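Structure tokens please, single chain.
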Amino acid sequence: MLKKSKFELLNPRGFTLIELIIVMAIIALLSSLLIVSMNIARARSRDTRRLADIESIVNAIEMYATTNDDLPTLSTWAAFTSSLDTFIKGDDFPADPKDFIYTACISGDNYLVAAALERPRTIKDDIDDADAAKYTIATDCITSNDSELTVLNCDDSTGLINGFPEAGGGTVACLGYFADQ
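Here you go.
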């Protein structure tokens, strides 16, 4: 039988159970941090898409108004989107990436297009400064899921579009035109 040298007894060749558990705990912690940051990045990406979508819809409304000397009529979301299809770049009319609701309102010369965002943020050209009540349209509103909507109030303090809690405490992005701006 071979005798173990003193060196082999002091330096075992494997890891102890404690060392393995510590390594697994560190890997689990790093994995959870990665998952959280990926979810935040995905939400930001969806919000960026929503902003691009409503900007695209606002541009289509402006091109429609220039071409037809009038704003499009709002009866259903499908009728609204088909009237703007020729002014939207690409094949499909913008749709929310996570089944949130897009809202469009037209009253006289004023119009708003709104989307609820998942994350709070500051938006360039967002229509909802300290006087958010000024930016409220109470007639001719439609939503992308054709649910009833009588008032669109672009108020970030609630993170809601007229009771639709899509924003989850985020921001309501409102773009459009108000004659009294």
